[in-house]
């Protein structure tokens, strides 16, 4: 180890690097471990790139505001929704003093961004991995409450009455951040219509999932102008590269949105077909319903299942380290061909399992 390491802040020396789906597992032919969209359209770039870009490109902000049905003053564009999460924590949480509340099992970046900002994390587990524990949440005193809906990795929508109850409770005390990274798969469930009623509501969105642009790194934070202006003070001067702005604007054009909606319809159908098949597999103990482009399965031995599929060149994700999820894997919905390969490989794997692992606790699909 070089001496340079000891020059870093103590918190940096102590941090464990984030293990993303892409960093922990690459290779393999079929990637079903990061909730990406396999049905991605191609894009073109035009022009020169000698000038610095606008911090918040107007055409892009206007396009997203129109798509979401809100005003341009309510929109911030960032380097993925992940940067939105980080900006919220850095803008609203005093290091070593404030805290955030999260509801595991859920998306990992809330806790990771909090940790790097020396912000404590209160964890209030989802009930039966689908409903908020309101009493538990109300017993915490955070600056930010993160609610993910559809929740990654469980796929559940958090009931709107529960979100409203959290908003009412924390009025004037904390921001309530609803992460809608997968909302295009269940658009009627969006809480964006509540923005006009609750100045402390924040909605996170991304082009990484339904729009098929994970490689672009483009996300949006939707909130009252006061919240957006606070985040603008913290964001870097040029967070959105010109090529990113150009491609994102194409994705948000009328034809781009139509394409996205068609791929969502295809994926929702593939997902429902996969759930029906998974429910019949001996050895799959539980299949979660899903309102997004992934499905959770409880199996006898998650690590063994993941490695059996790797041998078939298919990557899925082990979620067993999540609070409340034991022996659980998450499968992202890929192309029709990829889902065929997956189904075959899973049928093969589970037919080789011992019969005592037969399904006991199946649930209805969404
Ligand atoms: C993928 C994901 C994000 C991050 O989106 P990016 O725009 O790619 O940074 C945020 N929240 C949830 C729940 C996600 O699954």
Automatic annotation (TrEMBL):
- Copy the pathway line from the protein's UniProt record: Amino-acid biosynthesis; L-histidine biosynthesis; L-histidine from 5-phospho-alpha-D-ribose 1-diphosphate: step 7/9
Name the PROSITE patterns for this protein.
AA_TRANSFER_CLASS_2 (PS00599)
Residue ranges occupied by any Aminotransferase class I/classII large domain in the UniProt entry: 43-345
Pfam families the record matches: Aminotran_1_2 (PF00155)
Q: Which GO terms describe its biological process?
A: L-histidine biosynthetic process
The residue ranges crossing the membrane are none
Which keywords does the record carry?
Answer: Amino-acid biosynthesis, Aminotransferase, Histidine biosynthesis, Pyridoxal phosphate, Transferase
Q: What catalytic reaction does the record list?
A: L-histidinol phosphate + 2-oxoglutarate = 3-(imidazol-4-yl)-2-oxopropyl phosphate + L-glutamate
This protein's cofactor list reads: pyridoxal 5'-phosphate
| GO MF, one annotated term | pyridoxal phosphate binding
EC nos: 2.6.1.9
Task: Give the CDD domains listed for this entry.
Answer: AAT_like (cd00609)
Which residues fall in a coiled-coil region?
A: none
Which positions bear N6-(pyridoxal phosphate)lysine? Answer: 209
- Family membership: Belongs to the class-II pyridoxal-phosphate-dependent aminotransferase family. Histidinol-phosphate aminotransferase subfamily.
Q: How does it assemble?
A: Homodimer.
| Name under which the protein is recorded | Histidinol-phosphate aminotransferase
Q: Please name the source species.
A: Arsukibacterium ikkense
